[in-house]
Design a protein that fits this description.
Layout: H1 5-10, E1 13-19, H2 27-38, E2 42-48, H3 54-63, E3 66-71, H4 76-82, E4 85-86, H5 88-93, E5 98-101, E6 107-110, H6 113-124, E7 133-137, H7 141-152, E8 157-161, H8 165-175, E9 181-184, E10 194-199, E11 217-225, H9 234-241, E12 246-248, H10 251-266, H11 273-281
Parallel strand pairs: 1-2, 1-3, 4-6, 7-8, 7-10, 8-9, 10-11, 11-12
Antiparallel strand pairs: 3-5, 5-6
The structure holds 2'-monophosphoadenosine-5'-diphosphate (ATR).
Protein name: Shikimate dehydrogenase (NADP(+))
Pfam family, one: Shikimate_DH
GO molecular function: NADP binding; shikimate 3-dehydrogenase (NADP+) activity
């Protein structure tokens, strides 16, 4: 049967975030607010997917008419493998957080995490990275996802610190072609100062913080935690006590990466400031 125009107009375009866990995801609220800005008719669900059921869930969602997906823990690497075509930033990240189903049936994989972080820093927090010294903590998937866009901002130096130093060295090697990047252990940070310190470890999830030396912050330094929660993370609390001028959690990054996904799907970039403010109020 052929849909009439009236029917077409009332059928929402379907999107979702797939993850495990996913129940507490803020993505549905964020994307519904974005759609409201433009009067777009969309549906956005949080879909819990079995750890070994991702590929099947993606195919099913597409078969049901889905237009695009966000992908979160633990499926970003699998989404990368599943994509038929990848954006340059997804290739660099080695992971996919945004899928667009193309009309020819292909899966396009993108990664908006790093761009989201850079947007939050430069546009929302007014922190400019060009010529600055950046310290990134951690060397897992979350960090890999943001190094490309960070280096594109032309910092004077980007240092990756990790407990397991070889993981940091590996990343520095991969990204050396994009800018000045070094890898160190935490003990090697003694005596060094940075303008921007970004926590990309999962320490905050466990109520821990990376073993930073005091005096790591230069004057007017910014501490940024890619995680967020109801209260400041241990890293941000420590940062405020140890000389950081500004402390910001990853809520802005979350909204900005979502805005970049929305742009990929719908061709327009939503306003984010009010959305971030509304989420902060809860
Ligand atoms: P993700 O995909 O979220 O990045 P991951 O790949 O498991 O997760 O990486 C977690 C990162 O957090 C790693 O860099 C880890 O350090 P190690 O590689 O040395 O294990 C880091 N991390 C976790 N807990 C930490 C802590 N308490 N202090 C410092 N680093 C920590």
């Amino acid at each position: 049967p052929v849909a009439t125009k009236a029917e077409k107009d009332t059928t929402p375009a379907r999107y979702a975030v797939m993850g495990n866990p996913v129940a507490h995801s803020k993505s549905p609220v964020i994307h519904k607010q974005f759609a409201h800005q433009f009067g777009h008719n969309i549906e956005y669900a949080a879909l819990w997917v079995d750890t070994d059921g991702f590929a099947e869930a993606v195919q099913q969602f597409r078969a049901e008419g889905g237009k695009g997906l966000n992908v979160t823990v633990p499926f970003k690497l699998e989404a990368f493998s599943l994509a038929d075509n990848l954006s340059e930033r997804a290739k660099l990240a080695g992971a996919v957080n945004t899928i667009r189903f193309e009309v020819d049936g292909k899966i396009f994989g993108d990664n908006t995490d790093g761009t989201g972080l850079v947007h939050d820093l430069t546009k929302n927090l007014n922190v400019h990275l060009r010529g600055r010294k950046i310290l990134v903590l951690g060397a897992g998937g979350a960090v890999r996802g943001v190094l490309g866009p960070l280096l594109k901002q032309n910092p004077a130096l980007l240092v990756i610190a990790n407990r397991t130093v070889p993981k940091a060295k590996e990343l520095a090697k991969t990204f050396a072609q994009f800018g000045k990047i070094e890898a160190v252990g935490y003990d090697e940070l003694v005596g060094k100062r940075f303008d921007v310190v970004i926590n990309g470890t999962s320490a905050s999830l466990k109520g821990e913080m990376p073993p930073l030396p005091v005096n790591v912050f230069a004057g007017n330094a910014v501490a940024y935690d890619m995680m967020y929660g109801d209260k400041p993370t241990p890293f941000l609390e420590w940062a405020m006590l140890h000389g950081a001028e500004t402390a910001a959690d990853g809520l802005g990054m979350l909204v900005e990466q979502a805005a970049e996904s929305y742009l990929l799907w719908r061709g327009v970039r939503p306003e984010t400031r009010h959305v971030i403010a509304a989420l902060r109020k809860g």
